[in-house]
Every structure is written in structure tokens, then in C-alpha cells.
Amino acid sequence: MGKEAIKMELEKRALPEVLRxxxxxxxxxPELWGKRREEIREILQEECYGxxxxxxxxxEWETVQEDKNAFGGKAVLRTVxxxxxxxxxxxxxxxxxxxxxxxxxxPVFLYLTFLPLSSDELMEEITDSGYAVARVSYQxxxxxxxxxxxxxxxxxxxGNAFDGWGKLAVWAWSASRIMDYLVxxxxxxxxxxxxxxxxxxxxxxLLCGAMDDRFSMVISNDSGAGGISLFRGKEGENVADxxxxxxxxxxxxxxxxxxxxxxxxxxxxxxxxxxxxxxxYAASAVDDQWADPRSEFLSCAAVTPVYELLGEKGLVCDxxxxxxxxxxxxxxxxxxxxxxxxxxxxxxxxxxEYRRRHGV
Length: 360
Ligand code: GCU
Known about the structure:
Blueprint: H1 2-13, H2 30-49, E1 58-70, E2 75-85, E3 90-100, E4 108-113, H3 123-128, E5 132-137, H4 138-141, H5 152-156, H6 167-182, E6 193-198, H7 200-211, E7 217-221, H8 239-245, H9 268-273, E8 279-285, H10 293-309, E9 326-327, E10 332-337, H11 345-358
Parallel strand pairs: 4-5, 4-6, 6-7, 7-8, 8-10
Antiparallel strand pairs: 1-2, 2-3, 3-5, 9-10
Helix pairs in contact: 6-7
The structure holds alpha-D-glucopyranuronic acid.
């Protein structure tokens, strides 16, 4: 009965098929999925987020500060400067790494935050639970405003008015430069790194983890429009709102679909599908109508056939979610927290519970 309700809700959305190649071929083997996956990467960069550089830079990382006895001696707190060069240009930004001392090679949260690195923001609670945290304050990478490729990594690789990368792609790509540092770091478990963020940074985290296969898990909290929410049939924020208020988050081509979501050659389950077969976690809040919890949930349901094709359970649940539900059984985790748009301790607790359960 409950499963039927999910199916009906999805049918109403009339989504573009994630498991069909552009030439019409049904995608029913892992090999064909590999091909479809490349098409989807293309579509999302071309029509929504813009192109992320694949070559043409070099990176160095320098420890600029280290406290070996942070949090009363429980953790090492290190600030690292990421320095990125191209032939003619240069940019840099810091991130902070908190390493708990009571765990050998801890799993990591690479966390994009709104707050400055001087804030404490739950760090102690997370590291006490046995996780390392690599935290970057997003506007240290590039300001949250339309600046026409004059700042940060955007200035290293200026784009055009059509498929040039938007700020979400800039933040996402820059988080991957932190991943470059983490992935081979002896002190952590490079096979268990999750990227996480809230709201606009939930969009950026999802994009980052979708485009960068090295993350074992991708966490998008209340990410809404342009994040995990389906655009078709969505309540609250839509494409026109995004293009009016935050055009610089996306590439110029997205404007073609303002007021015309049904014409989008993708929907957000395509972005989620790039995470397959890795773990995906979406969190919603009941009173977050601007993001639209129902559309966030349905995206998780819509990506499930892709997981199943690859032999994984996607989202495992028997009914539409109710306040307080958490679905943790499958490779897609989801919870619907009571309350408003926010990333708080209940959310982190559930992310950690899910990670422990699945060993990611
Ligand atoms: C605005 C925006 C959302 C975004 C949110 C946030 O509300 O419309 O798309 O997620 O800001 O980042 O807090």
C-alpha cells in the first residue's frame, strides 16, 4: 500500500528516464549504465552547473597552524592552506582538520560550512564520536555573489555565459582539492570520506560527491532546489526563483528553463544517480517548504532503480516518510526531522549512525 503511494507520487512527476540512453536504448546492464553515467555528467554540466575543470592546475598544501592538544588534549587541530596554480594565475584558501586521538585512521567528514573556521560548531561532539572533520568555510574559497569570474578558482578558469561554471561548481571543485590532500593522508581512512553540507552547501556537497568518485558517501542536508529536490512538481523554490535570486550559482543555460521545468532534459535524480553505487544520504526537515521535503524524498526513490541495477539496495522504505522517520537500511539513507531548515545535532547523530551501520 505504502509503496504504491510512492510509485503514484513519482508517476505524477513524469520524470525524464535516468535508465535510458540519449539514443533511446534501455539501460539494463552495468556496462550500459557506465555509458549513461557519462551522458548524465555531460547534461548536468551543460545545462545546470557549468563545466568543472579537469586538467590544467597544480596544487600544494601547507600546514600553517597546528595545535596538538585541542579540545583538552583529545584532538589535533590543523589549519592547512590549499594553494592552486595555473600557468598564469594563483588562488588559495584554508581548511581545518580535526583529528581525534582516540581512533586510528578515523573516517572523515569533509564539511562545507557557512561559518568562519574560528567557530566551534559541534566539532568536539563529532570528533568525540570517532570521526575526523575537514572543514572549509565556503566564502574563503570564493564569495557568494556574482563576480563574473574575478575571484578564487573561478578566476583561474573563467567560463562563458552559457556553460561556464557557477559558484556551486566552484565550491564543489574546491572541496575536491581538499579531497586530493585527504585521500592519501596516513592519519585518516582515505576509503571512508563523506562530503557533507547544508542548504546551498548541501547542493555543493552533492555536486562534489556526484562528480568525484573518491567519496564513499555524500550527504545533502535540506538542499532543496538545485540540490536533491526534484524540480518537476516541486513546491517552494523553483528554477525561476533560483535564476532570479542566485543566477551565479549555476551556468547561464539554466535560465532557459525558468518557468519551464517540464522541459528540463534532466531532473535531480540524475545528479543523485552519479553517486551510485556509493552511499547517498539526504536529510529533510518537516517545516522546510522552500526546499520541499517531499521532493527531496522522491528523488531518493527515483534513483533507487539505478542502485538496484548495480546490485545494491537503494532507498528501503515501505511508505512516504512521516515526521521523525529515518530510513537507514539501504545505500540511500534518508530522514525527515521535525522542525525547520537547519543542520543540527539530530542530523549529525543520524549521519553518524548510518555511517557506523554501513561501515562507510
Ligand atoms: C535560500 C535559497 C536556497 C538555499 C538557502 C540556503 O533560501 O533560496 O536555495 O538553499 O538560501 O542556502 O540557506
